[in-house]
Design goal:
62% of the residues lie in helices and 2% in strands. It is mainly alpha-helical. The protein has one domain (40-165, 182-327): Alpha/alpha barrel (Mitochondrial carrier fold), CATH 1.50.40. Residues 1-24 are annotated as: Disordered.
Length: 337
């Protein structure tokens, strides 16, 4: 589902303790729809549609974040808003969606993430009833599976994001005129794939794989426990008549912001490894520190949080609604909203 919740969680919402598989359970007065209560076919179809809508809304900020992280110092853009305005002026709206078509293939990894997360939680529940333990292990495992699918797609889409009129930003430059080519540009995608193959071979599509794992596994593992923590605290603070969806929607972005702050340094390094073709995480880190100091590790953080906030709210609200719509027919009457 979206890049602010695990890459990744672009993916799910409230997944509490598993108990009896045949009964609905309450946790702090929040009724929970468990995995075994869902009509899986309906859940996957509606889930893909919802994820696609979220991607469309946050993709421009993903592109901006990538460019901010790759640029040297402030050579091109002075911040998120400045980048947004300059890209819009230079390339129009389609310039904010370069590489989008390729990026949509990550919808597959999103569904794999949800499935892995759910099945891992169920497996871990046989050994531990701690929600924190289940969240950490399941979140990390889900991210590992999702990233194995996502990294090649990310590598291609990031190089497409770097295409702009004028100065070259990434390692590769597409041939021909970029005028009017934004969202749908099959020729550009083919050109980038050929250049990656020519320069690095098949390994080039997994450049930055280790850096991605070091970014998104902790991000996913951290997001879940913080999400449950914030939701629990807000449930105590909110009036009893306050709809649960309200503090669930608030706790999602809070968890995403917390995870973003903790993992942004590795995200900057990951982006540079993938886009600039570097082979060493340690050398990339040293070069970044030498050129820009500690603040260089926080580049693109505001764009990351901005893109994560609306997507996380939509995911939390949408995912809860999705689960209600996907509830098995025979269980609908047993559910009280």
């Amino acid at each position: 589902m979206a890049r602010g919740i695990p890459k990744d969680p672009e993916l799910a919402v409230q997944e509490p303790d598993r108990r009896s598989p045949g009964t609905m359970e309450d946790k702090r007065n929040i009724q929970i729809i468990e995995w075994e209560h869902l009509d899986k076919k309906k859940f996957y179809v509606l889930g893909v549609a919802m994820t696609m809508m979220i991607r469309v809304s946050v993709y421009p900020f993903t592109l901006i974040r990538t460019r901010l992280q790759v640029q040297k110092g402030k050579s091109l853009y002075h911040g998120t808003f400045d980048a947004f305005v300059k890209i819009l002026r230079a390339d129009g709206v389609t310039g904010l969606y370069r590489g989008f078509l390729v990026n949509t293939f990550t919808l597959v990894s999103g569904q794999c993430y949800v499935t892995t997360y759910e099945l891992t939680r169920k497996f871990v529940s046989d050994y531990s009833q701690s929600n924190t333990v289940k969240s950490l292990v399941a979140g990390g495992a889900a991210s590992l599976v999702a990233q194995s699918i996502t990294v090649p797609i990310d590598v291609v889409s990031q190089h497409l994001m770097m295409q702009r009129k004028g100065e070259k930003m990434g390692r590769f430059q597409v041939h021909g005129n970029l005028e009017g080519q934004g969202i749908i540009a099959f020729g550009q995608t083919k050109d980038i794939i050929r250049q990656i193959l020519r320069a690095d071979g098949l390994r080039g599509f997994y450049r930055g794989y280790v850096a991605s794992l070091l970014t998104y596994i902790p991000n996913s593992a951290v997001w879940w426990p913080f999400y449950h923590f914030y939701a629990e605290q807000l449930s105590y603070l909110c009036p009893q008549e306050c709809p649960h969806i309200v503090f669930q929607a608030i706790s999602g972005p809070l968890a995403a912001a917390t995870a973003s702050i903790l993992t942004n340094p590795m995200d900057v390094i990951r982006t540079r490894v993938q886009v600039e073709g570097k082979s060493s995480i340690i050398l990339t880190f040293r070069q970044l520190m030498a050129e820009e100091g500690p603040w260089g590790l926080m580049k693109g953080l505001s764009a990351r949080i901005i893109s994560a906030t609306p997507s996380t709210i939509v995911i939390v609200v949408g995912y809860e609604s999705l689960k209600k719509l996907s509830l098995r027919p025979e269980l609908v009457d047993s559910r009280h909203w």
